Amino acid sequence: MAVITLFWLPALFTACSSESRLSASPASLDSNLTETSLEKEVRTLMEKGVSLEDRKLQVPVIKQAFARHTTQERARNLAALCYLKTLGTPFSPMDLAEIALAETGGHNLSSKATSTMGAIGVWQLMPSEARNHGYSPGEMRNDEKCAEAAVRTLLNKLEMADGNMDRAKKFYCGTGPQAEAYLRKIRRIRQLLLAELQGSRFTLAMKEKDSTVQ
């Protein structure tokens, strides 16, 4: 994969990657979707639109999280993809990062990861899903193309979920108990990322305050 360098830039393998037919009713799909305070913050950000500056602040947090599962260089490149591939979409970099961590964080965010159901790559796309978006299954081992396919898949799921981001991520996995467990994992990852993001915002604010005082 080509190295992506952005100068302002300073990660639980699941069986949920199988294709699913979405047949559950909206009421049943909305079960267990009670929001925490952190999740309300995410929803509010998404409804208002995430600023470019906030998107940039997310990248080092994502890179740090990814680096717990892979090398620093790979963490940096994957974090850059989360930023670049979500530009112009309803998603923030963290949305793409959550899925990567949920899908292959336990397997070092490896592009070679393949589930027992046949899902491929960091974002675990099924071969048929890849083809639906104009890619060959083998191309899912290319991080950039896998990220693009993941964003397109999540866009489809968001439409199916009538704009509900949590439900869209649940659909990314499928339906039933497996998908419920997947959503819980996504939420745990999100809480950790948001806590670190809030810490970064605080640190930045303190630096700006000190600079003003001086």
Describe this structure in words.
This protein has 214 residues and is mainly alpha-helical. It has a single domain (49-213), classed as Lysozyme. The protein has helices at 26-29, 37-48, 52-67, 72-84, 93-104, 127-132, 143-160, 165-173, 177-213. It is globular and about 55 Å long. The protein starts with 25 loop residues before the first helix and ends with a helix. The model is unreliable at 1-15 and 17-33 (pLDDT under 50).
Shape: globular
User: Termini separation (Å)?
Assistant: 44 Å
CATH-defined topology? Lysozyme
| Backbone structural class | mainly alpha
* Element-by-element helix/strand order: HHHHHHHHH
State the domain count: 1
Low-confidence stretches: 1-15, 17-33
SS elements, strand count: 0
What oligomeric state best describes the polypeptide chains here?
Answer: single chain
CATH architecture: Orthogonal Bundle
Helix content: 55-70%
Query: Number of helical segments?
Result: 9
Radius of gyration over alpha carbons? 17 Å
Strand content: under 5%
Mean pLDDT across every amino acid position: 81
| CATH classification, class level | Mainly Alpha
Main sheet? none
Which descriptors would you attach to this protein?
disordered N terminus, 9 helices, about 210 residues, mainly alpha, Lysozyme
